[in-house]
Design brief:
By secondary structure, the chain is an alpha+beta fold. Helices cover 33% and strands 16% of the residues. The protein has two domains: 76 residues, Beta-grasp domain (Ubiquitin-like (UB roll)); 69 residues, DNA polymerase, domain 1, CATH 1.10.150.120.
């Protein structure tokens, strides 16, 4: 199958890659760009493990074709920390023990960051609703919600 050249931005960096017409953005990130932080949980858009933002919109990268990324801005879990300095959400996930096996964690973090970008002061119900598309089989959601609420508080400077 013929590969197509795609130019895009990933985590603020200009990126070029070749992909097949049927290759998903998830596969491009993992296989072509070696960005393995984004996980495949279901490949059907039901679990949220592969969540990234595409031009600021939260998407399941398993449902987006790599070709659709052309000229767009992609943000992944790899772009969340600032060098060795963890994002407040990452620190709060650790502090609140909001992770276990790690398959869902990158998607939850990307989704939570997306929420806090549009709503820096969410209620617990808003956090739960926003993260409803991200499934976790290990931790449940109580610690995740607490971590997001705590990070939101810190990020607001409260």
């Amino acid at each position: 199958m013929k590969k197509t050249h795609v130019s895009t931005t990933v985590n603020g960096d200009d990126v070029d890659f070749l992909c097949e017409p049927t290759q998903t953005l998830l596969d491009v990130l993992r296989d072509e760009l070696q960005m393995t932080g984004t996980k495949e949980g279901c490949a059907t858009g039901d679990c949220g493990a592969c969540s990234v933002t595409l031009d600021g919109t939260l998407v399941c990268s398993c449902l987006v074709l790599g070709l659709e990324a052309a000229g767009k801005k992609i943000e992944t879990i790899e772009g969340m920390a600032n060098g060795d300095e963890l994002h407040p959400l990452q620190r709060k996930f650790i502090e609140h023990v909001a992770l276990q096996c790690g398959i869902c964690t990158p998607g939850l973090l990307v989704a939570a960051r997306s929420l806090l970008e549009v709503n820096p002061d969410p209620t617990e119900d808003e956090v739960r609703l926003w993260l409803a598309g991200n499934l976790c089989r290990c931790t449940g959601y109580h610690n995740v919600v607490e971590a997001v609420m705590d990070a939101a508080l810190e990020m607001r400077g409260a």
